[in-house]
Amino acid sequence: MLKLRQLFSTKQTPQSEKIPGSAQVQNSAGGFSWQVDDWTRLDRFLILGSDQGSYYASPRKLTVENAEAVMRCVSSDGLRTVQRIVDISTSGRAPKNDPALFALAIAAAAEDDATRKAALDALPQVARIGTHLFHFMDYVEGFRGWGRGLRRAIGGWYNHKTPDKLAYQAIKYQQRDGWSHRDALRLAHPKALLNEQAFIYKWITQGVDEFPDNLLSDKGVRLIWAFEQAKRAERAQDIIRLVEDYRLPWEAIPTQWLKDAKVWEALLPSLPMTATIRNLGRLTSLGVLAPLSSNSRLVADRLTNADALRKARVHPLAVLSALTTYQQGHGVRGRLSWSPVTLVTDALDTAFYKSFGNVNPTNKRLVLALDVSGSMSWGNIAGVPGVTPQVGSAAMALITAATERNVQFMAFSDKLVPLNISAKQRLDDVVKTVSNLSFGGTDCALPMVWAAQKRVKAEAFVIYTDSETWYGNIHPVQALQQYRQKMGIDAKLIVCGMVSNGFSIADPNDGGMLDVVGFDTAAPNVMSDFICG
Ligand code: CA
After folding, report:
1. Would you say residue 51 lies in a domain?
2. Of 1, 41, 410, 435, which residue is most buried, by most CB within 10 angstroms?
3. Rounded distance from Cα 376 to ligand 1 centre (Å)
């Protein structure tokens, strides 16, 4: 009889087989996991994107799978889908807005009239800047024709902007992906509501020779005028005056002046948050940011202003990426180089934590385990260079380290090792430590198996993984059930999905298990609410 039990049990099943009677499916690694529902898949796609593919799936395959999941969401509940896209996009929970624009383009081509209308009505909320609009136009062409509803929505995007906002968009985001404001306006043909708008439309579509005096009293028209002046400027002084008087954004300055430190010094006081983060290397290389300089102080104060970070929807992943690049002392393409200013590096480190907003501690005993198997060190989260799922997991773990008092960090693949992570470490140190860990197979049951063996009193296990588990002789949920029985603790399991695939090690029928999306800025609080019940 003992032999039979070894051959078949619902309490212990090798990961290469499905748990008898369960709805598990085979994952890409050949093991068995659960399939997440389409709504979870939608969230994963909106936050993690798919354009980098994964260890197991090409960008194309992953994108097709995700787009199909989005389409199923659209046909089962189009309005809920649009609302979800708007919520995730406007709250800044995702590192990149492109998946939201892509999903909105799918919804804008829905068969259902109400869904199509909701999607087009939501366009200004999801496409907040010119670049977003161009991306949307590029995507939507893949799903539908330029019908009246779509043309009206694009026209409305322009018409509902005040002349100064319109002018700002026109000079700051001039073109992207083969689309320009001229193309958009020629296609949509909005009928201007104001003379100033009409003038700006004309300037965009045909160009103008003169700026009539009566219109120059308008701030938007003056901004366009200043932009034209900047094109003709012959001295840095002229550029500086235009920047100071008209607040020209840096994108509107002809490139030859962007090598001038004085020009950047003029731009700096009103340089927006995102532009500041993107230009730290350049500013340091030009000497605008230098050790002990007042400009460095100004930038450090800006970067650590929680309110400003939230308003600019700065995602922690963008901060992580900026920190990695800035620390290297040279750009991705390697033309610029600089000596990092410590004050700025430290400010980025602080900004990373602040960009998550306030995270509520659970004050529970937690085991937090990072999957460091080979598949986790492949590809980039949301297409951000250098941020593999593994690096992303390590960064998320630091948020927990900074918030919680009782947490044991572990790293696993086909074996498990303790991981020394402390909130006192800098982000880049932790990332470096974790990047050097990489083993072979994947056994997501190890954290629970280990905790049961060592009688570790954990109230929740938090596992960062792609759920491509296959190696172990017991499934993660079975290991959790055995742990619960042995320890008499009703421990919870949270799976942080770090890849936008369709798998999870969490049993959807167990109320003590939860799927969240890694690098969702809302995830830390969702997790702590769940752990606290
Ligand atoms: Ca793996």
Report:
1. no
2. 41
3. 6
Does 222 reside within a domain?
no
| Cβ–Cβ under 8 Å, residues 444 and 466 | no
pTM: 0.93
The pocket of ion ligand 1, defined by CB under 5 A, consists of 373, 375, 442, 468
- Whether 313 and 420 map to the same domain: the answer is no
15 C-alpha vs ligand 1 centroid, how far in Å? Answer: 13
The Å distance, Cα 32 to ligand 1 centre, comes to 13
Q: From ligand 1's centre to the CA of 20, what distance in Å?
A: 23
Q: Is the dihedral of CA 385, 386, 388, 393 positive or negative?
A: negative
| Band of pLDDT at residue 423, cut at 50, 70 and 90 | confident
Give a yes or no: residue 59 inside a domain.
no
Compute the average pLDDT of residues 445-452. Answer: 98
Number of domains present in the structure of the chain: 2
Q: How far is the CA of 99 from the centre of ligand 1 (A)?
A: 25
pLDDT band with cut points at 50, 70 and 90 for residue 422: confident
Note whether 299 and 387 are same-domain residues.
no
- Pull the structure tokens for residue 345: 């590096």
pLDDT at site 1: 55
Distance 466 CA to ligand 1 centre (A): 7
Ligand 1 center to residue 378 CA distance, Å? 10
Domain that residue 296 falls in: 272-355
> To 10 degrees, the CA torsion angle through 515, 517, 520, 524?
40
Residue 227's closest CA among 205, 210, 251? 251
Report the amino acid identity of residue 89: S
Residue 469 CA, ligand 1 centroid: distance in Å: 6
Instruction: Specify the CATH number for the domain of residue 482.
Output: 3.40.50.410
| Cα 519 to ligand 1 centre (Å) | 19
Write down which residue in 327, 355, 383 finishes a domain. Answer: 355
Do 383 and 345 fall into the same domain? no
Ramachandran region, residue 396 (left: φ > 0; alpha: ψ -120 to 50; beta: rest): alpha
Which among 338, 355, 372 is the end of a domain?
355
Distance 273 CA to ligand 1 centre (A): 37
